[in-house]
Structure formats: C-alpha cells, structure tokens
Amino acid sequence: MDNEFKNKVIVVTGAAGNLGRALAVAFAQRGARIALLDLNEQTTQAVVDDLPQDADATAYAVNLLEAASVNQTLQAIVHDFGHIDVLANIAGGFTMGPLIQDTGDRDWEFMMNLNARSIFYTCRAAIPNMLANGGGRIINVSARAAVEGKGRMGPYCASKAAVKTLTESLAAENKFDNINVNCILPGTIDTPQNRDAMPDANFSNWVPPEALADVVVFLASEAARCVTGAAIPVYGKS
Questions:
Q1: For 128-166, how does the pLDDT look when each residue is reduced to its tens digit (9 = 90+)?
Q2: Best label site of 12, 129, 134, 181, fewest CB within 10 Å?
Q3: How far apart are alpha carbons 167 and 152 in whole angstroms?
Q4: pTM for the full model?
C-alpha cells in the first residue's frame, strides 16, 4: 500500500461498526495514526486488537450525544496525537418508524441526535484544531434517504438530509482555510445485520463496507484536494 497517510492523524467515529472497522483497516494499511471512537471502549479496543501489530491506533470511549464527552475526547486525541488531520464521522443508525402523525417525540429526537447532532458536535470540536494546523478533511456519512425520502422513515430521512446540508454549510465556511468537507450517500450496505433483516435479498447487489471505505479514503487523500461540499452516491447495484 502507498504511504500517503503516514503520520496523518485520522479520527473515526462509530469505529466498532461494520464500516468503522473497514475504514480502520484501510487507514492502518496506509500507515495512518488512528483514533478510533465508539460508545463502548471494550468493543472499540477489539477493533484495535484486530489491526496489524504495527498499527498506530488508540481506542477512545465517547458519547457522541453529549457535547462534554465529545469535547473531552477530542481534546484527549489532540493531546495524545498532536493534532487532527481527518475526521471521518461514521457513527449513525437507522430505524423504521410509523407514519409521521404517529411518530413520538422520542423517535424523532433519537434519529436527529444520532445522525445529525453527533456530527455537529464532532465538527464543532475538531475544526478549531484543523484551522490551527493549517487544514484538514471531514467526511460525513449521509444516506440515499437524504435525497429520496421514503414513507415510514421520516425521522431517518430528515436526519440524513440534515447531514448533507450541514456538510454543504461546513464546506462553504471552510473552503478558504484548506478544510474540505464532503459526505457519502451509501446504498444498502452488505452487513450481517442487513442480511438478517432481509434474508431474501440479493446480497451481491449491496455495497460492501470495504467499497465505502475506499471512497472515504479517497476523500481524505490529496487526489480529492479540489472536492468539497460534495454528496457522493455509493449505491452499487442496490
């Protein structure tokens, strides 16, 4: 593998999930220094333990829905690694729901908090360090649902649309400071959970986590130096 990311500090949220794990492997193979964040330190440490022995990776427990937890964790990363070059906001989730008129406040807030508020917190905490360091890259995970709203998925679709629009606002605010901000729009991801939920589907049409990780790595790379404010579909055949 190339060593473009050698000594680059990469922060990955949702690191214990399927895409987070794939991204950790991809960056480790490229010599990056990686801060892996998730709610549970043990499961996040398991991701670190599965990486090659020479990988420079550290696990951090964080509650992305609490501003103080996010701020403290990113401060710890800057203390431990010196700075932040790339923030990959992989954490998020999906739930089906009832019709909007039957949707409770808790269901709405859960999706908006998990998918949108978490990214607001991490970006707010990371950007000052990137500005001080002369630049950086932020890659968020939105979804096809951000541009194709579906019934009984209102809170999820709205939260992912918020991610896309927030990405565009961040890109506009930071484009003259060498901070590129983009998001990806995954189709159906080929995960064990999705296979269990949709056992009759054609899994070969779905998007492997490794393919999504490749796009995130590209957006973090020098090759994407002129790409900012983009929402990139990664649908595969799904």
A1: 999 999 999 999 999 999 999 999 999 999 999 999 999
A2: 134
A3: 25
A4: 0.98
Q: Tell me, yes or no, whether 23 lies in a domain.
A: yes
Instruction: For residues 76-99, give the mean pLDDT.
Output: 97
> What are the backbone angles phi and psi of residue 140, rounded to the nearest 5°?
-105, 155
- In Å, what is the CA distance from 124 to each residue of 67, 188, 189, 191? 10, 29, 28, 30
- Exposed e or buried b for every residue in 54-78, given b needs 16+ CB within 10 A? ebebbbbebebbeeebbeebbeebb
Integer Cα distance of 48 and 24 in angstroms:
8
* Catalytic site includes residue 156: yes
How many domains, the chain? 1
What string of DSSP letters covers 184-217? EEE-SB--HHHHHH-TTS-GGGSBPHHHHHHHHH
Domain that holds residue 230: 9-234
Angle in degrees, 0-180, between the axes of helices 154-174 and 105-112, rounded to the nearest 10: 30
DSSP 8-class letter at 149? -
**CATH code at position 79:** 3.40.50.720
